[in-house]
Fold this sequence. Notes:
The structure is a single chain. The chain has 312 residues and is α/β, with parallel strands linked by helices. The protein has ten helices and 16 strands. Strands 3, 5, 6, 7, 8, 15 and 16 form a seven-stranded mixed β-sheet that branches. Strands 11-10-9-12-13-14 form a six-stranded parallel β-sheet. A three-stranded antiparallel β-sheet has the order 2-1-4, with no helix packed on it. The chain is globular, with a radius of gyration of 19 Å. The mean pLDDT is 95. Residues 40-42, 45, 127-128, 131, 151-152, 154-158, 175, 177, 195, 213-214, 216, 235-236, 254-256, 299-301 line the site of NADP nicotinamide-adenine-dinucleotide phosphate.
Amino acid sequence: xxxxxxxxxxxxxxxxxEEFELDRPMARQIVVRVKAAxxxxxxxxxxxxxxxxxxxxxxxxxxxxxxxxxxxAVGASVTRIKxxxxxxxxxxxxxxxxxxxxxxxxxxxxxxxxxALSFDQAATLPIVGVTAWCGLVDKAxxxxxxxxxxxxxxxxxxxxxxxxxxxxxxxxxxxxxxTAMDDARALGLSRVVDYQQFSADTLQRQFDVVFDTAGxxxxxxxxxxxxxxxxxxxxxxxxxxxxxxxxxxxxKMVVAKPSTEVLAKVVEMxxxxxxxxxxxxxxxxxxxxxxxxxxxxxxxxxxxxVITWHHQ
Length: 312
Ligand SMILES: NC(=O)c1ccc[n+]([C@@H]2O[C@H](COP(=O)([O-])OP(=O)(O)OC[C@H]3O[C@@H](n4cnc5c(N)ncnc54)[C@H](OP(=O)(O)O)[C@@H]3O)[C@@H](O)[C@H]2O)c1
């Protein structure tokens, strides 16, 4: 079996495509033959060692979170999923391992894939969909008719949050790079601004919810955008802002908490087209390291990077 792994924390040069031995599944785990995996910034943040206090110091460490594939074996206590099912899910942060031809996942982070979604599409959903859901539904309790501003609306989480907010009946505005404003309008945004020319004062007191997916809005700008009683959601606060956010009644930090319940909701909505998975580029696992390196170094994703494994 092959997977992308690394033997110490560090930059893209630490990634290796290597043979590995698959663990036997425990009682509530399943073995998946991976058909597709998608890339999230957290994958390289973990590899860089930014989360070593959660991910530990045992190497080699496997890379990758979100995946879709076919179940090959299940642990003794697994009842919800059976061998042969097409599934999608995400790996725990501690385990990683989606950039592989096989993986062992926790049953609680996996749901059955509907036939209406391809494996590539399904693999794009877990982290971005769950993050959008945790922010807009769990934290903000978004209601139809409310107004939302998505800062960074064309990133993975930004697209998912925009589409989820539109489908929940909100009026959605957002920011993106000036050259991509037509792509943003096509997502259903009623107003789009260029984040490089951004001035919060021109959008004063207009939003019930501000979703800062990029983590670049100052606390003052976030407050300026809010109607009375509104809230700012931050998924990526800078260390300088973190303390202020924790103390501010108008700011909430969102940490994605994947569960079968939320994954199932995200999948159900994806089948109806929102969030509609957007794939920017597909590469086979054997060519994934250069593609991962380019995305990490150059950013500006035009949709999700999907890694595929063509099994015989
Ligand atoms: N807390 C959590 O549980 C959680 C969950 C998921 C993600 N995250 C974090 O949230 C961040 C976003 O994730 P993602 O998957 O959406 O990443 P992504 O796909 O790389 O998207 C980032 C987006 O931010 C835009 N952007 C860059 N600079 C900006 C600025 N100054 N103002 C507004 N937008 C700007 C980018 O636009 P251009 O490419 O055009 O520059 C891009 O569209 C990452 O840091 C990720 O690690 C946190």
